[in-house]
Amino acid sequence: MQFLQLVISGIAQGCIYGLIALGFVLIYKATETVSFAQGELMMLGAFAGFAAMTWLGLAFWMAVVCAVVAVALLGMLLERVVVRPILGQPAFSIVMLTIGIGYVARGLVTMVPGIGTETHTLPVPYKDEIYRLGELVLNAEQLVVIGATGVLCALLFALFRYSKLGIAMQASSQNQLAAYYMGIPVRRLNGLVWGLAAAVAALAGLLLAPITFVHANMGFIGLKAFPAAVVGGFGSLPGAIVGGVLIGVVESLAGFYLPDGFKDTAAYIVVLVMLMVRPNGLFGERLRKKV
């Protein structure tokens, strides 16, 4: 029963990793760049939800919608103003730019008086609720994380499978030049992808906040979400969720059964093993070129 409890806890934490990893994969598929600002966008989403509830007095679900929309617009603005002008430059430049965006976001939040340097509790309606199935104790926060992740995955599947926008995004991710020649507005789609990735990160922050509180450094969890994207296969959306859940479960079990210190390194050990066994990840595509 203890093992099952640890697995459920790991799945919930892994869903958070997976949601942030979704942002990595979405941006990479659209622009072939990696955004290391996803963790900070998650942090901004949590702070936006906290501000909407405490300062504006909005109900939790309304605050979630407002926070997700606000961070999505911020993601689109960042793509238009900061990222788009340097597309085509070496990948290292774009990576350093996104790291800089993360530091700037964290610094700006800490400058907000009375909120930036403190740790806050997000007053969610399901806080501290517990359900029992025999000897198994289920935490409401963890169940909400797992359920919300499942619903979001279903919505993303429907978006990319049945909507014209999703099909256009897939076409653009496979070959931007061909998509442009076919009349698809590639630049506009890139902005929408950044907005979608930011919205997913904001939702992850709002789901994580009741478990770990709201603070300026919560964005560092993005450093563990990146291995989730690598494990699942950097070009695969389902792989991001599977990789996140795998790392979350391994981390949870390592923290309980192994000595201190293994929990923090478990994600990177899994990545090293995966790179040795399957360099393309669990769901990564193998690309070949004819010369």
From TrEMBL:
Primary localisation category: membrane
Membrane-spanning residues: 6-27, 34-52, 58-78, 90-116, 136-160, 192-216, 236-258
Subcellular location: Cell membrane
Source organism, top-level taxon: Bacteria
Record Pfam families: BPD_transp_2
Keyword Transmembrane helix: yes
Membrane-related topology note: Multi-pass membrane protein
Keywords associated with the record: Amino-acid transport, Cell membrane, Membrane, Transmembrane, Transmembrane helix, Transport
InterPro entries: ABC_transp_permease, BCAA_transport_permease
UniProt similarity note: Belongs to the binding-protein-dependent transport system permease family. LivHM subfamily.
Identification of the protein by name: Branched-chain amino acid ABC transporter permease
Annotated source species: Pseudorhodoferax aquiterrae
